[in-house]
Amino acid sequence: MTAAARVCVVGAGVAGCAAALAARANGADVAIVEGPYGASAMSTGAWDVAPLEGMDGPWRTGRTVGEAIEAVVRDRPHHPYARRAGTTAAGRRALLAEIAAAHGALFGALGIYRPFDLGSHGVLVATEAGVARRAASAQIAVLDLDEAGTSDEARVVAVAELRGYRAFDAPSIAASLGQDATRRGDARRFLATPLEFFRRRSDATLGPAEVAALLDGDEARRRFAAILRRDVTVEGLSAVLVPPVLGRETDDVPAKLASALGVPMGEALGGPGGPQGLRLHRRIEAALDAAKVVRIEGPAVRVVVRGDGVSVETGSGSVAADRVVLATGSLLGGGLVLSDGELREPLLDLPVGVRGEPLALPSSARGRDPVALLGAELHAGGLGSSAGVRVDASMRVIDRDETPMARVLAAGALLADHDPTRDGTGLGVATLTGWVAGATAARPG
Ligand SMILES: Cc1cc2nc3c(=O)[nH]c(=O)nc-3n(C[C@H](O)[C@H](O)[C@H](O)COP(=O)(O)OP(=O)(O)OC[C@H]3O[C@@H](n4cnc5c(N)ncnc54)[C@H](O)[C@@H]3O)c2cc1C
Predict the structure, then answer these.
(1) Are 417 and 386 spatial neighbours (Cβ–Cβ below 8 Å)?
(2) pLDDT tens digits, 55-81
(3) Secondary structure class of 123 (helix, strand, coil)
(4) Domain boundaries along the sequence of the chain
(5) Is 328 in the pocket of ligand 1 (CB under 6 A)?
(6) Up-side HSE of residue 26: CA atoms within 13 Å toward CB?
(7) Which 8-state DSSP code applies to residue 219?
(8) CB of 61 within 8 A of CB of 121?
(9) Contact in structure between 22 and 440 (CB atoms under 8 Å)
(10) What CATH fold (topology level) applies to the domain 143-268?
C-alpha cells in the first residue's frame, strides 16, 4: 500500500482553503499553517471570477461567466487561467470544467455563496458607494438586484436608512443607483426608506461588524423584522437593500428577515473589516475542520526544502511534509514583502516576476521606482501589482534556474500575472490555483 502524501499548506485564505480541500479530496494528509487574516478577510461579499460587464454596463446581462473566463484566456496569455489552459481548445474546455469543479466543491464546503454556474450572467450587486456591478457569485446574504424585477419593470428597491447609523448613507446610495439605472435605460427605482432601529445615540459609532453581531441575537433580529414590516410600505416594492449587517456568527439572518417581509432582502457589498470577510473566514475554518485538515497556529517563519521532503518551521515547532503549497497571499497577506524597495517572497526567497520574466523596473539607491511598482493611487496599480511568484501549469514554482520545483507549489494572490484587487479575477484565481496546487501536491511519489 502506498502511504498517503503529506501536504503542508501555508496560509489559510481562500487559496489555502481550496488547496487543503483538494489535497484531502485526493487522499493526502494535510496540515495548514495559519497566519493573521489577509485579503480574503477583506472580502466584499462578491465573488469575482472574470469581468462580466458588457458594453451596456452592469444593468443588462453581458457575457456569461464561461465566456468571460474564455476572454481572459484569449486576451491575457500570462494570466494564471491561460497558463493552466495552454493554447488548445481542449485545454480551454478542461479549464472551464476545472473552474466549475473547484468552485462547486469549495462553495459546497463554505455553504454561504450562491451556486457557481458557468452559463449564468452572475449576480447584480450594489456597493456601499452606490455603484451597481456584476460578479460571478455573492454571499447569500447579499442582495442580487436581478431578483428585484427586470430592467423593464418599474419596481422599487427600498434602501434601508437606519436612522443614526453613519456607516451607510442610504439617500446617497439610492440616488446614485437610481441615476445610474435611469441613464442606462433600466426601469428599477431606488428609494431611501427610514427605519428607526437604533435606540441610543452611541449606536451611531457602531461599525457594520458590530451591528451584524447585534442581529445574530434573536431579540434584535425580531425587532428589526417588526420595524421592516411596519416601515417599509413602498408601493411596487420588489426588494430591500440593507447595509452589510445581516449576521456575523450566524448565517440564517437574511432568510428569517426576508420571510418576515415577503420580498427578497439582502446586503450591499461591504468594505474591509466588515462582516462579509469575517463570515468567509469563519466558514473557511469550519470547512477545514470538517475535512480533517490539521490547523496549526503560525505564522511559518521558514520553509526548508530537502531531497526527501520539506520542513515548514513555525515559531514553536516544524511540520514535515512531502510537499508544501504556499498560499500566503500578496503584499496584503504577507506572501510578498517590500524590503529596500524590492518585492520579495520571504519564506524561500523565491524569484518574483511578471509576464514570464523577472520584474524589471527603473531602480534607484532605495530600490524600484515606487510609482512604477505599485502605482500613484490605490486603484491604479503599477507593474508590481501583477508581480508575484511564477508557476508552471501544475502550480509548481519556477525556480531561479527556470525549472519547476518538485516539492514547492504556489497558489492565489501570491502568483504573478494577475492583479487580485483590480482585475476582476481575484477569488476565481485563488480557487482554481489553490485547487490545482492541492491536487498536484497530493500526488504520491
Ligand atoms: C480590499 C480588497 C477587496 C477585494 N475585493 C474583491 C472582490 O470584491 N472580489 C474578488 O473576487 N476579489 C476581491 N479581492 C481579491 C481577493 O480578496 C484575493 O484575490 C483573495 O482573497 C486572495 O486569496 P489568497 O488566499 O491568495 O490570499 P489571502 O486571503 O491574503 O490569504 C493569505 C493568507 O496567508 C497567510 N500568511 C502569509 N504569510 C504567512 C506565513 N508566513 N505563515 C502562515 N500564514 C501566512 C496570511 O496571514 C493570510 O491569511 C479583494 C482584495 C482586497 C485587498
Answers:
(1) yes
(2) 778 888 889 999 999 999 999 999 999
(3) strand
(4) 6-112+279-403+418-441, 143-268
(5) yes
(6) 20
(7) H
(8) yes
(9) no
(10) Rossmann fold (3.40.50)
Q: Note whether 133 and 58 are within 8 A (CB).
A: yes
Is the CB of residue 237 less than 8 Å from the CB of residue 158? yes
Ligand 1 centre to CA of 427 (Å) is 9
User: First CA to last CA across the chain, in angstroms?
Assistant: 12
Of 410, 408, 406, residue with least CA distance to 445: 406
Give per-residue pLDDT as tens, 128-182.
999 999 999 999 999 999 987 766 666 899 999 998 888 899 999 999 999 999 9
- Cis status of the peptide bond prior to 358, with omega within 30 of 0: no
Measured from the Cα of 33, ligand 1's closest atom is 43
Domain 6-112+279-403+418-441 in CATH 3.30.420.270: no
The closest-lying atom of ligand 1 relative to the alpha carbon of residue 346 is: 41
Q: How far apart are CA 360 and CA 373, in angstroms?
A: 10
Amino acid residing at 58? P
Assess whether the C-beta atom of 48 lies below 6 angstroms from ligand 1.
Answer: yes
Distance 135 CA to ligand 1 centre (A): 18
